[in-house]
Amino acid sequence: MIKHLLPLTLLLIVAGCASAPAEPARQYLLPSAGEAATAAQPDLDLRLAGYLDQGGIVIQSGPVAVRAARQHRWADPLPEQLRRALVYHLGQDGAPSDGRLTVQVVKFQGSGEGSAQVAGHWHYSGADGTTKAGRFQENRPLAQDGYEELVKQLDNAWAAVAASISESLQQ
Fold first, then answer.
1. Which pLDDT score, from 0 to 100, does residue 96 have?
2. How far is residue 140's CA from residue 113's CA, in Å, rounded to a whole number?
């Protein structure tokens, strides 16, 4: 019996030494998601495409292929970060404080070509009965490789989307 345990014990020791510990996942926050809103905002309904509403940062690796990173994740749920950042930017840009704004995000990801991509559409219904709508698409090149740079450029693109929406609402 002992003869059989010795090889098994050695095998387990070798297997344990050979496997490297998994590197912990890195977590990211959009820089503007941490800013406090300074003004009243319209009622906001933010929706994300299903593939975006999960923990990993999404990369589009081909014309029809996307993947969510396992080791590079959102520290807070992406919908909440986008909502906080949008409310902050709309307040900074002087958007109306009444009505209802619906924003549908269909792209919020990196591309294999080295850019941050944000796309979707929005619809606003004012308290006075006015309605406005529009589409948005922002592509920001990455100045360097890496997820940290991607998150910064996604945040910059989202700020540009908020500025565009705010400008349209003020016209």
1. 79
2. 11
* Secondary structure class of 165 (helix, strand, coil): helix
Integer Cα distance of 134 and 8 in angstroms: 66
Can you tell me the distance from the alpha carbon of 88 to that of 112, in angstroms, rounded to the nearest whole number? 30
Write the DSSP string, 32-97: GGGSPP-S---EEEEEE-GGGSSSEEEEE-SSS-EEEEEEEEESS-HHHHHHHHHHHHHHHTT--S
What is the bridge-based pairing of β-strands 66-74 and 100-111? unpaired
User: Residue type at 145?
Assistant: D
Distances (CA, A) of 43 to 13, 72, 96: 59, 31, 10
115 contacts 141 by C-beta, under 8 angstroms: yes
DSSP three-state, residue 161: helix
* CA gap 37, 24 in Å, rounded: 32
Per-residue model confidence (pLDDT) at position 95: 79
The SS3 assignment for 1 reads coil
pLDDT at 107 over 80: yes
Query: Per-residue pLDDT tens for 44-80?
Result: 999 999 999 999 999 999 999 999 999 999 999 999 9
